[in-house]
Amino acid sequence: MPPPASSLAARLTNIFVSPGEVFDEVKAGAPAVKNWLVPVLILALVGAVSAFVIFSQPAMIQQIREQQAKAFDQQVKSGKMTQAQADQAMAVAEKFSGPAMLKITGSIGAVISSFAGVFWRALVLWLLGMLILKARFDYLKALEVAGLATMISVLGTVVTMLLTVIFGKATAPSLALLVGQFDPKNPVHLLAAAVNVFTFWQLGVMAAGLARLATSSFARAFASLLIVWLVLQTALILCSITIAHLVTMAK
Amino acid sequence: MANPKKRKKILVFSVIAVVLVALALVAIFKKKEPPVTVQTEKVARRNITETVVANGKIYPVVQVHISPEVSGEITELPVKEGQFVHKGDLLLKIKPDFTLAALNQAKANYRSSLASQSTASANLEKAEAEYNRNKELFDRKLLSDSDFITFKVARDVARAQVENASNQVAMASAAVDSAQDSLNKTTITSPLDGTITTLNSQLGERVLGTVQNAGTDIMIISDLSQIEARVDIGEMDVVLIQPGQKARLDVDSFKDKKFTGVVTTVANSSEGLNASSALSSSSSSSSQSATQFQVRIRVNETEAFRPGMSVTTEIETRSRTNALSVPIASVTTRIIKSMTNSNPATTNSTAANSTPTNAIPTNALTTTGGGTNITKGNLQKPVEVVFVVEGDHVKTVPVKIGISDDNYWEIADGLKEGDEIVTGGYHAISHDLDDGKKIVIGAAVEPAKPQP
After folding, report:
1. N or C: which end of chain B has fewer CB within 10 A?
2. Which residues are CB-contacts of B335 (< 8 A; sequence separation ≥ 6)?
3. A186: closest CA among A197, A175, A196, A172?
């Protein structure tokens, strides 16, 4: 006997409380676009608002300008640029990284990443189910699980926005809060930044959904998701460190 | 079943709501203004020497252009470029055929004039004898008036002819001297001890020489024992330059060596003044070129200079000993808006101790900069200011600056020794800082490592 279907609003709120029950409904029910589209639209909206709020903060703008000024100062001190050229370049940089431009690009980025992210996570779930858990289920079902789990990201985005406003710098609820001066070239700092409360919460919720869809244990589903996450984070950290070193060498 | 689930839901969302509300409240009531990261330094006393930098060329103090005064073919040229010659040494000879012929002609004319003079003297002797004999006859009434006058006139004419012949002799003599002088000028000797720095002509070449105009520029002889730098100074700086001022010179050819010199002359008129005046009626472009004045600096050292070498000079125009000074980077400009109601909170003790005679009182100031808007009508010209550290804030203090060197400004008024001022970073001083801004003292940008 499948459980009685609840409303979309109930599913969006129950995902925080009892995600297993929500995913039981998803598995039993017919594919429903609203199950993933609505959470993604909410995340896109919240992301756009967050970008607008974050880039309205003078501290953030000043932080960006200081980083730009520091980079140009280094160019001047190394003799690769005159002060006049640096002033000119700074003026151009300020023009293209002004608050309005940052708000626009940040909002657009939030919308794009919301949609791209849910499709990517659904693909990961679908592949894990098929290749690791040896289960057959539709990609659309994986998309519904990933979409509903996106509600955790919505909450995480709001908290990140508030923390950024409070601390005056890009701050997420992660172990990076314990780092005094965040260094983007330090792999430990990058790893600390990746250990985010909401990331693990969302991983757990997605693991619950994957376990339901694949008729597998939660532990196995969570372990497989965690391994994929670790591999991807390691790759990302290595990439960012390499890019940072390349930029330094180019300067 | 429903009640425990509902209670769990309420509990979870209550926790979430409490966390979000708490974070939101903190975010709302948090002070918005972020501190600006700066570097600071104490105002100190230093010796400051102001310099004017100019570029120019190396020239010998004495330099002679050798040009012939007679035309002809060079038949002897026993010198080479770069050769040292003494005063009186033979430099070149010009073929003398033409001038020699002219001399012979002049001598012949001279001899002819001497003969003419002898003839005229004989004629005068004869005319005077006839005049004297006929005068006796005339006195005894034996000769008519008209006949007597004829003899008298003949005598006067003979006298005039003698005088004319004498003048002809003098003229012929002068012509001989002139021809001899021209002949002598076919041999040119060095007028000074020096080095032939330029040799434009070759053996066998025909050169043009005139007395009135410059002829062919055959060579240049320079006295390299005395060298000077001729540099161009802009009209803003030339008023600071005076003869006797010391200068440091960097000659591009001697990269590792510094030279010293003394200003000897400062041009009274700008370079190309006459030319630009002449051109001004036909072209307006001349007025767009920078006005430059030539300044000559005698080089103290004797090095293997060559005329035309490029030189950069630093002329020491003014200096102050033990002057109150701040780093150049710490001085910037801000537009000051006067306030009718002074704000005691912004009173600056430093400025109060040394009230500038021409500065705006610092306890009646607000500043603009870094994008701060100000009301139209209260706008004034930007003034030089420094940012004095007061706790975790800065105070904008107008200063009266004096002279400067490469690193420091002299502060004539506005600060006192020991005041802590903001010296960096560049963007903070030029854009971000403003009166009352919160600051945090942080590390300066590390100088980039030299590239291998």
Report:
1. C
2. B367, B368, B369, B374, B379, B380, B381, B382, B383
3. A175
CB-CB: which of B9, B19, B36 is closest to A13? B9
Distance (Å, whole) CA B271 – CA B68 = 29
pLDDT tens sequence across B95-127: 988 889 999 999 999 999 999 999 999 999 999
Residue pair B361/B338 in contact by the 8 Å Cβ criterion: no
Q: At residue B358, what is the residue type?
A: N
ipTM: 0.79
Q: Tens digit of pLDDT per residue, chain A (251 long)?
A: 555 678 888 889 889 988 998 999 898 888 889 999 999 999 999 999 999 988 888 777 777 777 777 777 777 777 777 777 877 887 787 777 778 888 898 899 999 999 999 999 999 999 999 999 888 899 999 999 999 999 999 999 999 999 888 887 777 888 888 776 777 778 888 888 888 899 999 999 999 999 999 998 999 999 999 999 999 989 988 888 888 777 666 65
Residue B215 contacts residue B208 (beta carbons within 8 Å)? yes
CA distance B333 to B370: 11
- Which of B23, B332, B451 has the most A C-beta neighbours within 10 Å, making it the best mutation to test the interface with A? B23
DSSP state of A196: B
Q: Would you state the structure tokens that stand for residue B284, as one six-digit string?
A: 């307006």
Question: Which residues make beta-bridge pairs with B397?
Answer: B386
CA nearest to B175, candidates B94, B115, B93, B112: B112
> CA triplet A22, A119, A127: central angle to 5 degrees?
80
Structure tokens at B396: 């904008």
Per-residue model confidence (pLDDT) at position B380:
60
User: Distance between CA B403 and CA B318 in Å, rounded?
Assistant: 7
User: What residues in chain B have their Cβ under 8 A from chain A's Cβ atoms?
Assistant: 5, 8-9, 12-13, 16, 19-20, 23-24, 26-27, 30, 32-34, 36-37, 425-428, 432, 445-448, 451
In the numeric block, which tokens belong to residue A227? 């391994």
SS3 B296: strand
Q: Which residues contact A135 (CB under 8 A, 6 or more apart)?
A: A129, A213, A214, A215, A216
For testing the chain A interface, which of B445, B446, B449, B451 should be mutated: the one with the most A CBs within 10 Å? B445
Residue of chain B nearest A169, judged by CA positions = B34
Domain boundaries, given as residue ranges, for chain A: 26-250
CB-based contact, A73 to chain B, within 8 Å = yes
**What pLDDT is attached to residue A2?**
53
Q: pLDDT tens-digit profile of B367-420?
A: 444 333 334 444 467 889 999 999 888 999 999 999 888 889 999 999 999 999
Please judge whether B20 and A18 are an interchain contact, meaning their C-beta atoms are less than 8 angstroms apart.
no
